Amino acid sequence: MTILKKKIEKIITEQGPVSIADFMNIALTDKNNGYYRKKMPLGSKGDFITSPDISQIFGEILGIWILDLWIKLEKPKNIQIVDLGGGRGTLLRDIRRVLGDKIQNYIFIDINVELIKLQKKAVKGALHFKKIEDIPKKPSIFIGNEFLDTFPINQFVLSKECFKEVCIDYKNQKLIFSHQVTSLSKTLDKKKLNQVRVNDILEINFESRNFIDKVSSFIKENNGGAIFFDYGYTSSHGDTFQAIRENKFVNPLDDPGNADLTAHVDFNDIAQRAINNLVNVWGPDTQGTFLKKMGAIERFKALESVSDNKIKQELHLGLNRLIDIDEMGKLFKVLAITSNKFPSPEGFTCGTRSS
Ligand SMILES: C[S@@+](CC[C@H](N)C(=O)[O-])C[C@H]1O[C@@H](n2cnc3c(N)ncnc32)[C@H](O)[C@@H]1O
């Protein structure tokens, strides 16, 4: 049994069932044994692989997206690019290759010691911070690929009488799900949530909402924008809490600390939160639509024309994974926010201006 499983069982025995958010917080970010503190989650030897490590085209397209904004901003010298949860550093490295020395300031925000080491190698001279509150107060473009899904969710279920929270209990020496009336479930107003039917699961990501508040305040004060990619949905979706270990789905309660725990991102909720914060919102669109609008296919053709057959095939497989509707093209969504003084970004089919 893992140390974290024992720790969680002890908490439940002493204090009663814990929320999914508390369980995820311990499993993912516990100081000594949390998944994101101790494991190397990414890459071919990790539990999963992400878009920048699938194809260089992903980072290059983001580099072009940033370059366009920089030109529209009349080429400011002091702007900084901030990679939220920078993984192996591949994304920021590819972005910097596109931008050359036009932009000088690169920042990673991360908590994983092993990944931070790789980021230092990938982007020499970048600054490293653990949280957004600590970065220099300058005009900024934030990038978050598979970052919002690291925040813990709370789940609720509408019973015949009221909302209950889906919690984790310890019974017969096993961690199990159980439905409880909690202080949070009491705050949910049944009438306001008329889209929810009895037994439906409702997921709310309070920490993502808080994070969107922080990024919105930052870009309103300092000027800037942010772009988020993640697997997610735009209409109510039920239970999306999941665990991945060695590229396979596993029971989320089985091995806390050794499997990645995530939930799909509710992009409409994120968009609404940003609008409430009076910033402009672009999208959500699907990843496939965005990448194609930004020229991913043209970039593929240019790379293909100078590659040998083996590389051509890799490029082809990589692009397909990123944009095909049966792969990441549709399941993955993209959304950007910008401050009112910031130019309109390219690549989106829709936008909502807050002023
Ligand atoms: C799913 S990975 C995505 C990595 C990268 N963006 C990519 O596309 O390859 C999540 C990243 O977020 C980092 N992370 C997780 N929780 C975090 C937190 N609370 N604060 C900062 N970084 C965090 C992880 O260490 C990891 O680098």
Structural class computed from helices and strand pairing:
alpha/beta
Gap between N and C termini: 54 Å
What number of domains?
2
User: In DSSP terms, counting alpha (H) and pi (I) runs of 4 or more, how many helices?
Assistant: 14
Ligands bound here? S-adenosylmethionine
Radius of gyration: 21 Å
- The overall pLDDT, averaged over residues, is 92
Which bin fits the share of residues in helices? 25-40%
Spans where pLDDT lies below 50 across 5 or more residues: none
Write down the overall geometry: globular
Q: Considering the protein shown, what is the CATH homologous superfamily of the largest domain?
A: Vaccinia Virus protein VP39
Beta content? 15-25%
CATH topology of the largest domain: Rossmann fold
Instruction: Please write the CATH class name of the largest domain.
Output: Alpha Beta
* CATH architecture classification name of the largest domain: 3-Layer(aba) Sandwich
Quick recap of the structure?
With 355 residues, the chain is α/β, with parallel strands linked by helices. Helices cover 38% and strands 24% of the residues. It binds S-adenosylmethionine (SAM).
Structure description:
- With 355 residues, this protein is an alpha/beta fold.
- The chain folds into two domains: 3-33 and 154-203, no CATH class; 41-146 and 207-246 and 265-342, Rossmann fold.
- The chain is 38% helix and 24% strand.
- The chain contains 14 helices and 17 strands.
- The strands form three sheets. Strands 2, 3, 4, 5, 10, 14, 15, 16 and 17 form a nine-stranded mixed β-sheet that branches.
- Helix 5 packs across helix 6 and helix 12 (296-304) runs antiparallel to helix 13.
- The mean pLDDT is 92.
- Bound molecules: S-adenosylmethionine.
- S-adenosylmethionine is lined by residues 29, 36, 42, 50-52, 85-87, 91, 109-112, 115, 145-147, 150.
